[in-house]
Design goal:
about 160 residues, alpha+beta, five-stranded antiparallel sheet, 9 strands, about 40% strand
Amino acid sequence: MKRIYSVLVENRSGVLCKVAGLFWRRCFNIDSLAVGETMDKTVSNMTIVSSGDQRTLEQIEKQLNKKLDVIKVKTFEESESISRELVLVKIHYNRTNRKDIMENCEIMHADIVDLSKNQMTIQLCDTPERVQIFLDTLKTVSIVEIARTGTLALLKCSHTS
């Protein structure tokens, strides 16, 4: 079972280390971690995706709430959120596979953002599942390098708010 934690923290040095240390000390797994400033430069938002049984996931939330640098913790299931991940993939291509790669990019709404004589860099921003599907389609070509962000997520808009 996976859960997403949206954690507002004080934006200062050492906070990320403290939060990661909490996961390390308690042997909790971090599937994904993304951190960025909010509109208030003194506050950062950590989006942490973790997996485990129900007890473990509840324990993670309790431990996060105990941290002094943590301002607020929101938790939600994947089904309750809009989540996105960005991936940049640099691949080798040749005349025979170039058209197939471009067709896959078109189908998945990926963009070719850099191109040379025999390499291209492709960008895709989509759900983590679709990013993985896209990477699976590229297994037939020579992947040079991959850079992936962690999952970013927000609760879905509600019609009652």
